[in-house]
Amino acid sequence: MIPALIPTYNRAPLAFERGEGTWLYTTDGRRFLDFAAGIATCSIGHAHPHMVQELNGQIGRVMHVSNLFQIPQATRLAERLVANSFADTVFFCNSGAEANEGMVKFARRAQAMSGHPERTDIICMDGAFHGRTLAMLSATGNPKYLEGFGAPVSGFVHVPFNDIEALKAAITPQTAAIMLEPIQGESGIKVASTDYLKAVRALCDETGVLLALDEVQSGVGRTGKLFAHEWAGITPDVMSAAKGLGGGFPIGAVLATEAVASCMTAGTHGTTFGGNPLACTAGNAVLDVLLAPGFLEQVRSRAALLDTLLDELVQDAPTVFAERRGLGLLIGLRCVLPVGTVQAAAQDADLLCVTAGDNVLRLVPPLTLSENECREAVSRLKKAVQSLTDKHNNKTLEPTL
Ligand SMILES: *Cc1c(COP(=O)(O)O)cnc(C)c1O
Predict the structure, then answer these.
(1) pLDDT at 256 exceeding the cut of 70
(2) Nearest Cα to 176, choosing from 123, 115, 125?
(3) Would you say residue 363 has pLDDT above 60?
(4) Which atom of ligand 1 sits closest to the CA of residue 133?
(5) Which atom of ligand 1 is nearest to the CA of 250?
(6) Measured in angstroms, how far is the CA atom of residue 1 from the centroid of ligand 1?
(7) Which of 130, 145, 181, 215 should be mutated for ligand 1, with most atoms under 8 A from CB?
(8) Ligand 1, pocket-test mutation among 93, 186, 254, most atoms within 8 A of CB
(9) Confidence grade of residue 400 (pLDDT, cut at 50, 70, 90)
(10) Residue ID of nearest Cα to ligand 1 atom 10
(11) Residue with CA closest to ligand 1 atom 5
(12) One-letter-per-residue 3-state SS of the chain
């Protein structure tokens, strides 16, 4: 019989009762160091006192009024995102997939309203992940996710990631936008090179194609800049954000230049829940922490410490790990052993991590973690390595019958 809660996920048999900072506690008293952070989402850790205070206050006043009315919390969050990014304006929604849907609508309509209604195609990357709605499945392009859901939505084409010649060759008079993650998350923490991103920007400028960045996972401080594209010294025309933006509360956003967004007049796009007072209070509480002087520098120094320690780990455990990659606190360890086995061993050592494609163990801790927690995570990974190599040695010692 099908369970009441539909089994569309492979859930670990763990339930958490409460969290504190980088730590999660199960109902039966186990304490885990959380390098999963709700899949790169709990950006300021669990039960951050400032977040708790702000949300509690807002819940007691008003949670939702709809976009029929003014929402000062949304205005404030938008103004702060605009002040700290390339964007001139922001649309709020509720998830990453929804933000990406909005981003594609912005790009197509901007082309249509500037005299190019034929420009509707979106060039996406092999290995992309843009979400699970019908159109974003097609943008993602992974046949495994599309199976059984009917014909793919038209207008999405794919080229190899980090390959500027392939991208040039794919541009046609019908191309509206190039859509990519500056760091591919789900498919294995693959970083777009700075040269590539600069060349993509130049190509867009030459051809009138819009640059649409999916920063759902890489954005909101994750890489030690507010948005990952800042490392390459480029700006997009339109960008999505979500995961870390609400610190665990659902919120997504489409950020855009005025040139793109001026086509989005009243009635062209909407959502009932998007940008409600509670969600935007969460977003503002996250920004209070992230935009405090020195905070992003601290993220970069934590990341540098982890890079050093993890490089040592990879070097010392060549039968388990092949390579470290990523940027800031969006970290991938490509595994030699099956990543599921490594993740399970880490979990047995009371460390939570996420898997990603390409046999990669994904480490995405809260951005607020301490130096000691960095060291503790690596020491737990060492424990996991030890148990894996012990197991391996036992196996090879067993007589084959
Ligand atoms: C998680 C993710 C999405 C989808 O976000 P949801 O909130 O799950 O819809 C889209 N793009 C990227 C890069 C992501 O990491």
Answers:
(1) yes
(2) 123
(3) yes
(4) 9
(5) 7
(6) 31
(7) 130
(8) 186
(9) very low
(10) 130
(11) 96
(12) CCCCCCCCCCCCCCCEEEEEECEEEECCCCEEEECCHHHHCCCCCECCHHHHHHHHHHHHHCCCCCCCCCCHHHHHHHHHHHHCCCCCEEEEECCHHHHHHHHHHHHHHHHHHCCCCCCCEEEEECCCCCCCCHHHHHHHCCHHHHCCCCCCCCCEEEECCCCHHHHHHHCCCCEEEEEECCEECCCCCEECCHHHHHHHHHHHHHHCCEEEEECCCCCCCCCCCCCHHHHHCCCCCEEEECHHHHECECCEEEEECHHHHCCCCCCCCCCCCCCCHHHHHHHHHHHHHHCCCCHHHHHHHHHHHHHHHHHHHHHHCCCCEEEEEEECCEEEEEECCCHHHHHHHHHHCCEECEEECCCEEEECCCCCCCHHHHHHHHHHHHHHHHHHHHHHHHHHHCCCC
- Which sign does the torsion angle of CA 291, 46, 280, 224 carry? positive
What spacing in Å lies between the alpha carbon of 96 and ligand 1's midpoint? 4
Beta strand 238-241 with 210-214: parallel, antiparallel or unpaired? parallel
* Half-sphere exposure in the Cβ direction for 236 (13 Å, CA): 29
Measured from the Cα of 186, ligand 1's closest atom is 15
- One-letter amino acid at 152 equals P
Residue with CA closest to ligand 1 atom 11: 130
Ligand 1 atom having least distance to the Cα of 215: 13
Model confidence pLDDT, tens digit, residues 263-300: 999 999 999 999 999 999 999 999 999 999 999 999 99
Pocket of ligand 1 (CB under 6 A): 95-97, 100, 129-131, 181, 185-186, 214, 216-217, 242-243
Cα 126 to Cα 140: distance, rounded to the nearest angstrom: 8
Residues of the chain above pLDDT 90, percent: 97
Ligand 1 nearest atom to the CA of residue 184, by list position: 13
- Which range has the worst mean pLDDT, 145-159, 274-288, 320-334, 385-399? 385-399
pTM: 0.97
The owner of tokens 């090879």 is 396
